[in-house]
Design a protein that fits this description.
The protein has 263 residues and is α/β, with parallel strands linked by helices. The chain has 2 domains: 4-145 and 201-262, Vaccinia Virus protein VP39 (Rossmann fold, 3-Layer(aba) Sandwich), CATH 3.40.50; 154-199, no CATH class. It has helices at 9-29, 52-56, 68-77, 79-83, 97-103, 122-129, 160-164, 173-182, 187-199, 203-213, 229-232, 242-245, 250-254; strands spanning 39-43, 60-65, 87-91, 107-113, 133-143, 217-225, 238-239, 257-262.
């Protein structure tokens, strides 16, 4: 069954804040010091919780998301910071000309936390991200590789079986869709899961996209147990075992999350 944070924006927000402070920010700081005045953009920001620790450090933060109801929640959570001119949130597409004109060349750090796996035409998308970077700017990516047990995000399903069954998302698309339908999943969930099926971002494919874009991988951390599982399942985060990480393709099946800094 879908977890509480999938339906409760308050729970989701507080998990975002804590995960960002404990794991995302320390990882970013290994290659990019976070100081007052740094400009940070989060794409797919949801309720904006990932940005909270950066705002606390005196960064100017911008969040953008296509889900307008989530942006509305972010605007409520950060009403004081927005009024003070320290943050801004947009329900907008980053390809749209007004957004590009407003923010081209503006950011020291761009954050994409659990976002790239939802994006079509990822090669085009990563190239477009460079539009918003300042000279010397860097991009954080964190995502679950496609072949990991729940790489299809099937944990958002409403039926007990379809939400807890691992690996079946890698079946052929037609069979996968049939299983979801047979178990009574609503159309909006099926459509969301099939969109992720279409993108299938693996470790190998992601790194190839980064190389082709002209960006470089500055730092990387694979996880055997995703840091966010601390909040979802009470599991202690575990970095990936070295010898597993050294085996291309096999590692995709056993790595629940990878963090990258690129620039």
């Amino acid at each position: 069954m879908a977890l509480k944070q999938h339906k409760d924006e308050g729970v989701r927000y507080h998990q975002q804040v804590d995960n960002s402070k404990m794991y995302v920010m320390p990882f970013i700081e290994q290659t990019k010091p976070i100081q007052e005045g740094i400009r940070v953009l989060e794409i797919g920001c949801g309720e904006g919780g990932v940005l909270a620790p950066f705002a606390d450090r005196g960064c100017y933060c911008v969040g953008v998301d296509l889900a307008c109801h989530r942006i509305e929640h972010a605007q409520k959570f950060f009403a004081l910071q927005i009024a003070a001119g320290k943050m801004n949130f947009h329900c907008e597409n980053i390809y749209d000309e007004p957004f590009v004109n407003r923010y081209a060349g503006s950011f020291d750090i761009i954050i994409l936390k659990d976002v790239i796996e939802h994006i079509p035409q990822q090669e085009k998308f990563v190239l477009h991200l460079k539009t918003f970077l300042k000279s010397g700017g860097q991009i954080f990516f964190g995502f679950p590789p496609w072949y990991m047990p729940f790489g299809g995000h099937q944990q958002v399903c409403e039926h007990k079986l379809t939400s807890k069954l691992p690996y079946y998302h890698i079946l052929p698309k037609g069979i996968y869709k049939r299983i979801l339908k047979m178990n009574g999943e609503p159309d909006h969930i099926i459509n969301e899961l099939l969109e992720i099926w279409n993108t299938q971002i693996t470790i190998e494919r992601f790194e190839k996209i980064i190389r082709k874009s002209g960006l470089k991988i500055l730092h990387k951390q694979p996880y055997l147990i995703n840091p966010i599982y601390r909040y979802k399942f009470g599991l202690k985060p575990r970095k990936q075992i070295g010898f597993i990480n050294a085996i291309p393709y096999v590692r995709d099946f056993l790595t629940t999350c990878v963090y990258y800094m690129v620039g």
